[in-house]
Specification:
By secondary structure, the protein is an alpha/beta fold. It has eight helices and 13 strands. Strand 10, helix 8 and strand 11 form a beta-alpha-beta unit.
Length: 290
């Protein structure tokens, strides 16, 4: 475990976290990483189920950014709400602070925006209520926590390039480029906004939850029509969890693999199922699909 991670702040930019899961997850995180964990999350939801109004959620997060004693910020949970307040987040302060930022799902929008603004210590990884709270009851969540700790050890040792093992190949090839692990819905929500980074020449890894097959098709088609898919060097399809008409998904993903001028793999362990592989956002990656 890297000596650099001594104190961790927990934030909620989306839905209000369950108080019991939050307390349990923070305790497990502190014990597992041998770090102090501080939490500033509203657990009583506002009328729209978010962890406070827009201004208060952004203010709490920016206060954590300004706390020089914190080495890492970890999301309490996802849900909905991050895209409402991206213009209120001080990403310049995040960049200056050098803090690690970890989350996925709804938090993917913040990771994309932060990467656009030069932040590199970004992890698509476990959150407090959906992962850390369950590491003592779930072997899958414990494995995810172990992978997270190993990832921190790798990056602290200067292990800059990573290789993605091929699971099931849709399109053969080999490519090396920055890896962008993200949520399909959140990526689509930023298309046409000033918060979306330039994705040309990257490898994107996509996942989602509770999206029916036709919605996945519609969103991939939007990425095709706006030119994002055609400009990629590779594509990784993770898990599409709890999808209605899920039997159609392999056919849909295979169709969009033809849009990529590079390797495409499917069923990579990334998403809302556990264990999901923690990945550094923007880390140089070699994807080889045989």
């Amino acid at each position: 475990m890297s000596d650099a991670i001594r104190k961790i702040g927990v934030f909620a930019l989306s839905n209000a976290p369950d108080a019991g899961l939050l307390e349990k997850g923070c305790a497990n995180l502190a014990d597992f990483l041998h770090a102090e964990v501080v939490c500033d999350c509203q657990t009583t939801p506002d009328p729209r189920k978010m962890a406070g109004d827009d201004c208060s959620r952004a203010r709490r997060f920016n206060e954590l950014l300004a706390d020089d004693s914190l080495d890492m910020l970890v999301a309490a949970r996802g849900g909905y709400g991050v895209t409402r307040i991206l213009d209120k987040i001080d990403v310049a302060a995040l960049h200056r602070s050098g803090k690690w930022l970890c989350g996925y799902s709804d938090v993917s929008a913040l990771l994309l925006y932060a990467w656009k603004n030069g932040c590199t210590r970004l992890i698509h990884g476990p959150m407090i209520c959906s992962g850390w709270a369950n590491i003592r009851e779930s072997k899958e969540c414990l494995r995810e926590a172990e992978l997270f700790r190993k990832l921190l050890e790798d990056v602290s040792d200067g292990n800059g390039n990573m290789r993605l093992e091929s699971t099931m190949t849709l399109k053969r090839g080999c490519a090396t480029a920055p890896l962008i692990p993200t949520n399909l819905t959140m990526l689509n929500s930023l298309v046409g906004t000033t918060f979306l980074p330039e994705l040309s020449g990257t490898i994107i890894a996509l996942e989602d939850v509770n999206e029916p097959a036709h919605s996945i098709d519609r969103k991939l088609n939007q990425l095709r029509q706006c030119g994002i898919l055609g400009a990629l060097k590779g594509l990784v399809f993770g898990h599409f969890t709890d999808a209605d008409d899920g039997s159609y998904i392999p056919e849909i993903l295979n169709e969009y693999a033809d849009c990529i001028d590079g390797p495409v793999i499917i069923d990579y362990p990334l998403g809302h199922d556990h264990p999901s592989t923690p990945l550094v956002f923007g880390r140089n990656c070699t994807l080889e699909a045989n």
